[in-house]
Write a structure and sequence with these properties.
- With 873 residues, the protein is of the alpha+beta class.
- The chain is built from 27 helices and 37 strands.
- A hairpin with a 6-residue loop joins strand 23 and strand 24.
- Helix 3 packs across helix 4.
- It binds one RNA strand of 87 nucleotides through helix 7, strand 11, strand 15, helix 10 and strand 33.
RNA sequence: GCGGAUGUGGCGGAAUUGGCAUACGCGCCAGACUAAGGAUCUGGUGGGGUAACUCCCGUGAAGGUUCAAGUCCUUUCGUCCGCACCA
């Protein structure tokens, strides 16, 4: 055995042995009777080229659980794959003249090797690359089933268009008016696009939350995104028909304020907007307004506060209950894609309507009086009254509390056939088509005679052609690829055009976890019964940035797979039972500012910075540098740490241990080389304990039980306490950081322990064996190496998880704190199960306690066995 | 503006059911070993007071419940994140 712990010498050796032994390959969930299945999944990476520290952390968290669960006897599915379609591959093609396919697969090879070097325990026999036709063909088949059932459809819509990516984006993929991937400005364009009907599942997405053990923040983000509002749809009549319509609907969450309506506002995109303007005195002006708002709408609004603007159409609506004529306005703040695109305006009780009414001198009508306030005067209002109160000026409903009036007025609307109670959602259907090359082709054909024709199942997959020229200009290369585009109609045989849009890459990531369950199934996305055995994913680990993108799409796709028969009807309805969102890996970043252009920040790598008199300067330019604080590692801020470098220097085990110890999984890890050294030091201490006491340890006979005393007893208690703590920290608590702390304490105890008798060696051996087993999910290479050095056969993986001996945990005596009036006044040694009288007597005998009790009447005694004795005087 | 999370030593963090605040690590200080130490080992390390002592204070701030509060309740401030004219 080596004097010093040299990670580089042992890590490749063990990686090879695990692979050779097929240690992580798993069959079906039910293969080992009596063993429970556990599906542990981490979000699959995009093969960008090299792994970064965020990957290292995400996968270390997953691996520590996966390895521990296997040792506990579970049948563990722990797969890995590649989210391999997407824009960066096309950019690489343009910038580096490499084919996206070649670039992607070479990145995959590189990253796979990096993941192996970190010792992650994946079942590589199930590896998936989503750009492989054997994967995406099933996606095409599922899409066609959706199309057949009306769950996918094509429509002309105003969509988010990213200029830089030259493609449309789904609502979820626009952040602050910018593209989620490239940060480029997003504009609105009216285009013919493909959608998946996620809104059909809006309510189920909400209801399913009760079944999920997910972080509150993620559930809240989803809830807000789905945006359920209860209210009423109210039909207003037109004073005279508009485009053959005699009425139109508004959506409101405040039917209680219906009698306060003084005008109606509709969106510029409303289908009746043009017809309303027709024949108006100022028709041209209204039409110009409509056109202006339609164009500037979304992008300007996302920039912040947009001033409310509107124009009177010259037309009137008829109030469904009072029959009053109220003016119809077109207003820039009314959204077409929410509710009905039209709102009833109640300026006395709605802030937006109030602002609009004041600007255009429209009347207000108070219909809710707050309790205990004299008459609210509509003219004197300085802001809308949105609180609760009793109805006034509302006909038969006067005097009702406004909460009750909601249902009362809705009931009246129903009785008069002028409306109904309804629910509105903010969630929109998922726009899945993209005008990009490197994606899964949407399997339809456009025929002049037959319209949109699905590609027949026999012709699937529609392969993405490889012989394309990618220039980044002139739209999708597919549209210019004649032999791809030109085809015949499957129905009538006439010449037809193939669809050239591809799917959003979020389509691939919406079902990859289903595919992992039966990755080699040739004719179907999954083999239903075997997939059913593995599902749901018991623990899913990944970043919170996917809270409303991936995690909504994947839930919907899972519902769809069940409802379309790809999964059994009795499959768990929710795909991810438990979710763990890991935090970022951060490091301080430094920048200088160019004197010639002070707005321009230039970021510096740590090695390009020199320290003089406690201040930082750029080595090249000499500029003084400023700290941007501890921020997420990113290439642009040049505060990244390359995993390969630190693995080469400290070993994969130390790197894994550090990222697991530095913070609990949801927290942020501040990168620190000193901290990493601390982790490495810990592993060296473990190494030293084994090396220095190897002889005694190897010669020790197994601990056979029986009474112990003194230090051996204490050590054994420490060992079994550690087993208990680590087991619980890796189990229900999902806190590897505290498990590491517990192991460090055990190592401290083992270092201090001096074996003198045979029984001491036996106890020490039991402790070291337990420590190595507990450590192996964290630092698997060094744990296996030390196990072997002590004469162990094979890997610790096969050895099982240590079991707590309750006898070892038992305390002969504990130190019990004694509190008097809430303050600790002494400690007494008592048996852990001592009764109150014994403990009280012991406390009275303690000098300091006695002094505090002197001359005072004991009023109350509270004894929490094993915890504390509290006396009140 | 709305919603969520969060606030504990110099730093990362621990405290599992209301029961000994600061485990574990980093950093720092002292000592040992040494020709040497940026290696290793040992000890110390919230603040204050004292001759000494389990003497006092202390979990962003203020109040409350309780024998007992980092933990529960009310109010408030700060930070981070998400959404943002959603009718």
């Amino acid at each position: 055995m080596r004097e010093r712990y040299e990670p580089s010498e042992i890590e490749t050796k063990w990686q090879q042995r695990w692979t050779d032994a097929g240690a992580f390959a798993v069959g079906d969930a039910g293969d080992a009777p009596g063993r429970e299945k556990f599906y542990l999944l981490e979000m699959l990476p995009y093969p960008s080229g090299r792994i970064h520290m965020g990957h290292v952390r995400n996968y270390a968290i997953g691996d520590v659980f996966a390895r521990q669960l296997r040792m506990r006897g579970k049948t563990v599915l722990h797969p890995m794959g590649w989210d391999a379609f997407g824009m960066p591959a096309e950019n690489a093609a343009i910038e580096r003249k490499r084919h996206p396919m070649e670039w992607t697969y070479s990145n995959i090879a590189q990253m796979r090797a990096q993941l192996r070097q970190l010792g992650y325990s994946y079942d590589w026999t199930r590896e998936i690359a989503t750009c492989d036709a054997s994967y995406y063909r099933h996606e095409q088949a599922m899409f066609l089933t959706m199309l057949e059932r009306g769950l996918a459809y094509r429509k002309r819509a105003i969509a988010n268009w990213c200029e830089q990516c030259q493609t449309v984006l789904a609502n979820e993929q626009v952040e602050d008016g910018r593209c989620w991937r490239c940060g480029g400005a997003v504009v609105m364009k009216e285009l013919l696009q493909w959608f998946i009907r996620t809104t059909a599942y809006a309510q189920e997405l909400l209801d399913g939350h009760t079944k999920l053990d997910w972080p509150a923040s993620v559930l809240t983000k989803q809830r807000n995104w789905i945006g359920r509002s209860e209210g009423a749809e109210v039909r207003f009549g037109f004073d005279r028909p508009v485009a053959n319509e005699s009425s139109f609907s508004v959506f409101t969450t405040r039917p209680d304020t219906l009698f306060g309506v003084t005008f109606v506002s509709i969106a510029a995109e409303h289908p009746l907007a043009h017809a309303l303007a027709e024949g108006a005195e100022n028709e041209a002006e209204v039409l110009a307004f409509i056109e202006r708002i339609r164009v500037e709408h979304r992008t300007r609004r996302d920039e912040g506060d947009l001033e409310k603007e509107g124009i009177f159409t010259g037309r009137y609506a008829i109030h469904p209950l009072t029959g009053a004529r109220v003016p119809i306005w077109i207003a820039n703040f009314v959204l077409m894609d929410y509710g009905t695109g039209a709102v009833m305006a109640v300026p006395a009780h709605d802030e937006r309507d109030f602002e609009f009414a004041r600007k255009y001198a429209l009347p207000l009508k108070v219909v809710i009086q707050p309790e205990g306030v004299a008459d609210l005067d509509a003219d004197a209002l300085t802001e809308a009254f949105t609180g609760s109160g009793r109805l006034v000026g509302s006909g038969a409903h006067d005097g009702l509390p406004n909460d009750d009036a909601k249902s009362a007025i809705t009931a009246e609307l129903v009785a008069r056939e002028a409306g109904r109670g309804t629910v509105s959602y903010r969630l929109r259907d998922w726009l899945v088509s993209r005008q990009r090359y490197w994606g899964c082709p949407i399997p339809v054909i456009h025929c002049a005679a037959c319209g949109v024709v699905p590609v027949p199942a026999s012709q699937l997959p529609v392969l993405l052609p490889e012989d394309v020229v990618i220039t980044g200009e002139g739209g999708s290369p597919l549209a210019r690829h004649a032999s791809f585009v030109n085809t015949t109609c499957p129905t009538c045989g006439a010449a037809a055009r193939r669809e050239t849009d591809t799917f959003d890459t979020f389509v691939e990531s919406s079902w990859y976890f289903e595919r992992y369950t039966t990755p080699h199934e040739a004719t179907r996305p999954v083999e239903p019964a075997r997939a059913r055995g593995w599902l749901p994913v018991d623990l899913y680990i990944g970043g919170e940035e996917h809270a409303v993108m991936h995690l909504i799409y994947a839930r919907v796709w899972h519902y769809l797979m069940i409802d379309l028969g790809y999964l059994p009807a009795d499959a768990p309805r929710e795909p991810f039972a438990r979710l763990l969102c890991q935090g970022m890996v951060c490091q301080e970043a430094f920048y200088g500012t160019d004197p010639a252009n002070p707005a321009h920040r230039v970021w510096y790598y740590p090695e390009d910075i020199e320290l003089r008199d406690g201040a930082r300067f750029a080595k090249d330019t000499g500029w003084p540098l400023h700290s941007a604080g501890v921020v997420k590692m990113s290439k642009t801020k040049r505060n990244v740490v390359d995993p390969d470098e630190v693995v080469a220097k400290y070993g994969a085990d130390a790197v894994r241990l550090f990222v697991l110890f530095a913070a609990p999984p949801p927290g942020q890890v501040d990168w620190s080389e000193e901290g990493l050294e601390g982790a490495s030091r810990f592993l060296q201490r473990v190494w030293r304990i084994v090396r220095e006491r190897r002889e005694a340890l190897v010669g020790a006979r197994p601990f056979a039980g029986g009474p112990l005393d003194g230090a051996a007893r204490d050590l054994r208690r420490a060992v079994h306490r550690t087993i208990d703590r680590v087991s619980r920290d890796l189990g229900e608590r999902l806190q590897p950081n505290t498990a590491v702390a517990a192991m460090m304490e055990l190592v401290n105890a083992l270092s201090a322990f001096k074996p003198e008798r045979d029984v001491d060696a036996a106890v020490m051996r039991e402790g070291v064996d337990a420590l190595l087993s507990l450590l192996s999910p964290f630092a698997p290479h060094v744990a296996d190496e030390l196990f072997e050095a002590l004469g162990g056969e094979g890997s610790l993986l096969a050895r099982g998880w240590p079991v707590v001996d309750p006898e070892a945990l038992r305390e002969d005596a504990i130190e019990l704190p004694v509190q008097i009036n809430g303050k600790i006044r002494g400690r007494v040694q008592v048996a852990p199960d001592a009764d109150e009288a014994t403990v009280l007597a012991a406390a009275r005998a303690e000098a300091n306690v006695a002094a505090h009790l002197e001359g005072r009447a004991l009023k109350k005694v509270l004894y929490v066995p094993g915890r504390i004795l509290t006396l009140v005087v």
